[in-house]
Amino acid sequence: MTGSPDFIDANIERIRGNISEACARAGRAPDEVRLMAVTKTVDPELVNRAIAQGIDLLGENRVQEFLSKKDSYDKSAEVHIIGHLQTNKVKYIINDVSMIQSVDSERLLAEISRLAVKNGRTMDILCEVNIGGEDSKSGVSPDELRPLLEAAANTEGVRLRGLMTIPPPTDSDIFLGRMKELYDRLSESFPMDVLSMGMTHDYAAAVLHGSTLVRVGTGLFGARSYPAKA
Ligand SMILES: *Cc1c(COP(=O)(O)O)cnc(C)c1O
User: Fold this and answer.
1) Among 12, 15, 36, 38, which residue has the most ligand 1 atoms within 8 Å of its CB, making it the best to mutate?
2) What is the C-alpha to C-alpha distance for residues 161 and 194, in angstroms, rounded to an integer?
3) In the chain, is it the N or the C terminus that has fewer CB atoms within a 10 Å radius of its CB?
């Protein structure tokens, strides 16, 4: 990596400004929304620069990549898994992350539970919802969500915190709204406090629709060498 990482400081400032503005428009307090830095393909040096500028939450997509980078990260930031997680990889990350946002099956839930209990901890989780019903995306359909939440609420070693989604890139406004309705409806049965939605292209819209955690990669660090993938 060559050149000065100053651009990251400016990006963080701009994104925080946009989040505050969206909060003001929605009548929400700016501290109701957490900004996550999504680190896929990003040099640890740049990730640490973001941490030095106040970023306290990192999002990791790929277990292998995370394992190769984690020792270089400044330890003051929390790490969440946001990419599709294979059951046989949970063992590699169970003690290094504070939340798994991409829970999409009872099988994965059971493995997280088994390893959390074994390691004497409780893992915070979000259930991932494929709100647009897209074949290319992981996550459960809105119809499959209630049974998964029921399982999560009754599983030892995991604490259900909320929902995560990647809406379709087109009509994302409609799907962000649908996601918030689903979240509010299910919150009546399951206590939840995290609604993770919004990426570089739609984080301001997501905040208007009630997101409590936005996941930004490109807008912070610049374009990636490979495309975003769930
Ligand atoms: C890559 C990724 C993001 C960030 O996407 P950008 O468009 O680069 O901001 C957010 N969430 C998930 C699950 C991702 O895989």
Assistant:
1) 38
2) 6
3) N
Amino acid found at 170: T
CB of 139 closer than 6 angstroms to any ligand 1 atom: no
Kindly give the distance from the C-alpha atom of residue 40 to the centroid of ligand 1, in angstroms, as a whole number.
8
> Ligand 1 pocket check: which of 39, 41, 82, 224 to mutate, most ligand atoms within 8 Å of Cβ?
82
**Beta-strand runs (E) in 107-212:** 123-129, 158-165, 194-196
Say how many Å lie between the CA of residue 120 and the centre of ligand 1.
31
Whether 40 lines ligand 1, by a CB cut-off of 6 Å, is: yes
Q: How far apart are CA 65 and CA 52, in angstroms?
A: 21
Are 88 and 101 spatial neighbours (Cβ–Cβ below 8 Å)? no
pLDDT tens for residues 33-90? 999 999 999 999 999 999 999 999 999 999 999 999 999 999 999 999 999 999 999 9
Report if residue 18 sits inside a domain: yes
State the pairing for strand pair 34-38/213-216.
parallel
Rounded to an integer, what distance in angstroms lies between the CA atom of residue 198 and that of residue 83?
15
Q: Give the residue, out of 41, 99, 215, 225, with the most ligand 1 atoms within 8 A of its beta carbon, to mutate for a pocket test.
A: 215
Number of domains in the chain: 1
Using one digit for the tens of pLDDT, what is the confidence trace for 89-117?
999 999 999 999 999 999 999 999 999 99
CATH of the domain at 24: 3.20.20.10
User: Are 102 and 83 contacting, i.e. CB atoms less than 8 angstroms apart?
Assistant: yes
- Domain membership of residue 24 (yes or no) is yes
